[in-house]
Amino acid sequence: MADWVYLALGSNLGDRARHLAFARERLAALPETSMVAASEIEETEPLGPVPQGPYLNQMVLLKTTLAPRDLLAQCGAIERAAGRERTVRWGPRTLDLDIVRYDDLAIAEPDLVVPHPELPRRAFWQRELAELLPYAQPG
Which of 32, 72, 86, 137 is most buried as measured by Cβ atoms within 10 A of its Cβ? Predict the structure, then answer.
């Protein structure tokens, strides 16, 4: 049975809109996965202590049978394909993909926490999530 997944996309380096489009294309092409809806794109100020430019952010709703860890691995591969280099925590990035919610699962592992622990503190994620919730139909 497929699960509903809310995935956040963010970019603040290079052609930000193109990086988000690349992520949507690659996510929609994942095995056993369909993209149900995408929120509006919004520009936000960066979070954290590192000086950097503003982000473009968006959230997508996926229906997938991929396990959370498999989806996380796929997200990492998509980030790397977009030129993401993990050098500075909270630093600028070409593409950042975060699993915000994975159906009703609660996961607490060192490199995978769902629901994402930053969800309560990110108003833009809450807006984007609210925009997508009507598309997640039971069953």
Answer: 72
| pTM higher than 0.90 | yes
Helix and strand numbers, DSSP H then E, in the chain: 3, 7
**Among residues 84, 86, 89, 103, which one is catalytic?**
84
- Cβ within 8 Å of residue 34, ≥6 positions away: 28, 62, 63, 64
Given 16, 96, 101, 122, which residue is catalytic?
A: 96
Q: Is 98 a catalytic residue?
A: yes
- 127 among known catalytic residues: no
Strands 33-38 and 42-44: unpaired
List, for residues 23-61, the tens digit of each pLDDT value.
999 999 999 999 999 999 999 998 888 888 999 999 999
**Given 93, 101, 104, 127, which residue is catalytic?**
93
Residue 80 known to be catalytic = no
Catalytic residue check, 96? yes
Three-class secondary structure of residue 4 per DSSP: strand
Angstrom distance (rounded) from CA 85 to CA 95: 9
